Amino acid sequence: MNARTLTLSENAIRVAASLLGSTPGTVRQRVRASGLSDSSYRLAQKRLYESGLVEDRYLPVPSALGLNRVSFVLARPFTDRIQETSQLISSEPGAVVVLTGTQLVLGTVFHASEEGADQLRARLSSHVGGGVLAFLSLDPKEPRVPVYYDFEGAWAHFVGLRGTVHYPRPLPIGPGPSRWGRRASLIGASASLQLLRRPFPEMNGGRPSHLAGPATLPGSQRRLLEHGLVEWRVSLHPGVVPKYDNRSIAHLIMTRGTLRDQDGLPDLFSVLVGRCGVFPFLVASDGSQVLIGSLGTGLQAGAQSPHRAVLSTISRHLGNLEVVREPMESVRAPLWQRYDRLLLGAAAA
After folding, report:
1. What does the alpha-carbon distance between residue 167 and residue 170 come to, in Å, rounded to a whole number?
2. Is 6:55 a contact under the CB 8 Å cutoff?
């Protein structure tokens, strides 16, 4: 099954919302909350995973892997440099996301130190030059990424559901060291490697994706979640969302700008969600620069696009505003939330 054959029935919509907003718990709890029968829930869940619309991910706390820096890169290289730029970012051991299109490359890379981020910045400047629109280097232990690849809000808005359960979810910082204890680390633990690889059938013995959730984890892996070292999340793959009610996910929209008020990020987010009806899947800031990732909806013929009014509102909060709209049909994902690669980054530290 693929996105072309998946039909967004009411059951599929409700189960997708249940999964995108879920936390580790029993399937029975999620079934009960959805209001569906057990068999209807499980059938819709199976179809959603098989279509690739939703995917499990196990997201580790970066500092538990000795990764003390994260870079968010938005580049707009010349067309003949897009593949080269993509490969440059993908070759970083701590690269977990690389998206490309006809006019952009988006990357998320974790590093052991600020030096690693500086080296990546220098390489990109050498290869891409002025085509680097944004390079944010952040300490992942600070609350600088209030929305981290969280699609629950975008999904609810797209299908017309009211409210969300856990949106927005930030990049996990984790509990304090006092709760972890001195030995709390994911480095070198076989359970860590097995858990981070678990969502990928080619790396877990072919286990179907819908059977890779936390309910089936062995005790050693479940404890990593219980101790707050790893988070289980269900992510949307926006490139395979089928049309629904004459709407489609038509664009990947990346926005970058400079905060007019250094403490204005919470207000900007509130305006985006409350006034503009925009539910970003990514928001990151280094205290000055801001990078926002969102999904643009293709409307039926004759409908008026609201993006001009949105930009006018955002510009009251951000200066030096620049927006790149990439048709979703052109977006490719050389790397899509491959957190198993963070163990490579930790080994390279």
Report:
1. 9
2. no
Which residues lie below 8 Å from residue 231, measured CB to CB, with a gap of 6+? 58, 59, 60, 61, 172, 225
Provide the mean pLDDT of the chain.
87
The fold adopted by the segment(s) 147-155+247-330 is Alpha-Beta Plaits (3.30.70)
SS3 content of the chain, % helix, strand, coil (to 5): 40, 25, 35
- C-beta of residue 115 within 8 angstroms of C-beta of residue 79: no
Nearest-CA neighbor of 156 among 148, 167, 164?
A: 164
Torsions phi, psi of 99, nearest 5? -115, 140
Alpha carbon of residue 12 to chain centroid: 21
Cβ-proximal residues to 34 (8 Å cutoff; 6+ apart), any chain: 14, 15, 18, 41
311 vs 286, higher pLDDT: 286
**Contact (CB, 8 A) for 321 and 88:** no
Please state the pTM of the whole predicted model.
0.91
Q: Evaluate whether 153 touches 168 at the Cβ level (below 8 Å).
A: yes
The pLDDT-based confidence of 345 (bands split at 50, 70, 90) is: low
Going through the chain in order, the beta strands assigned E by DSSP cover 54-60, 69-75, 95-100, 105-111, 132-138, 147-148, 230-236, 248-259, 282-285, 289-298, 318-327, 332-336
pLDDT at 300 (0 to 100)? 44
